[in-house]
Write a structure and sequence with these properties.
The complex is a heterodimer of chains A (about 110) and B (about 110). Chain A has about 110 residues and is an all-beta fold. Chain A has no helices and eleven strands. In chain A, the strands form two sheets. In chain A, strands 2, 4, 5, 6, 9, 10 and 11 form a seven-stranded mixed sheet that branches. In chain A, strands 1-3-8-7 form a four-stranded antiparallel sheet, with no helix packed on it. Chain B is an all-beta fold. In chain B, strands 2, 4, 5, 9, 10 and 11 form a six-stranded mixed sheet that branches. Chain B is globular. Classes of the chains: A mainly beta (about 110), B mainly beta (about 110). The interface between A and B is medium-sized, with 29 and 25 residues.
Chain lengths: ~110, ~110
């Protein structure tokens, strides 16, 4: 099945630790995105990548880092510099015309 | 960043009723998208609109791309319990997407 896979579904992090969220797509899409969703709020853009080995900061990039070494993969690292990392994280991808975004099932990160 | 205004913020309806929600922006978009999100899941694309004035249906859902390119609405006819969830609008411009805050729909039996 073609789609976007995020893992893990749930992640717990101790304060001061870095954690990496996985996002893989087999849709052959060039563009990939990471969004953060907090309760009762819309989606805020963290980072996006339009092509392999290139990525740009979104509206709330501080405390996060990404890499795009392969077209299929766009992992997000939540660093210890992110002061309030507890949230629902969504990965998305978009095809050649960039007209529609398709989402993974999300990763819920909780700091304990 | 850019913002979309989505209304209503939440709504409670009886099963079988029709639902209408809308999304407005101060910016022009090339594409309008409507998504539904179930609790703990990622948003699922319901309808995509590609040009001003376009009216598109998907089963009981109907959406329109506003003539000014700054707004869109979504209608759901004859609501059923599985329509419960959060509905997001999104505008696409250049290579990015802007999302509304969502409309939370509750359907009472």
């Amino acid at each position: 099945d073609g789609g976007i896979t995020q893992s893990p579904k749930y992640l717990f992090r101790k304060e001061g630790q870095n954690v990496t969220l996985s996002c893989e797509q087999n849709l052959n899409h060039d563009a990939m995105y990471w969004y953060r969703q907090d309760p009762g709020q819309g989606l805020r853009l963290i980072y996006y990548s339009q092509i392999v080995n290139d990525f740009q900061k979104g509206d709330i990039a501080e405390g996060y880092s990404v890499s795009r070494e392969k077209k299929e993969s766009f992992p997000l690292t939540v660093t210890s510099a992110q002061k309030n990392p507890t949230a629902f994280y969504l990965c998305a991808s978009s095809g050649e015309m960039n007209t529609e975004a398709f989402f993974g099932q999300g990763t819920r990160l909780t700091v304990v | 960043g850019q913002q979309l205004n989505q209304s209503p913020q939440s709504m409670f309806i009886q099963e079988g009723e029709d639902v209408s929600m809308n999304c407005t922006s101060s910016s022009i978009f090339n594409t309008w998208l409507w998504y539904k999100q179930d609790p703990g899941e990622g948003p699922v694309l319901l309808i995509a609109l590609y040009k001003a004035g376009e009216l598109t249906s998907n089963g009981r859902l109907t959406a329109q791309f506003g003539i000014t390119r700054k707004d869109s609405f979504l209608n759901i006819s004859a609501s059923i319990p599985s329509d419960v969830g959060i509905y997001f609008c999104a505008g696409q411009l250049m290579r990015n997407f802007v999302f509304g805050p969502g409309t939370r729909l509750s359907v009472l039996p």
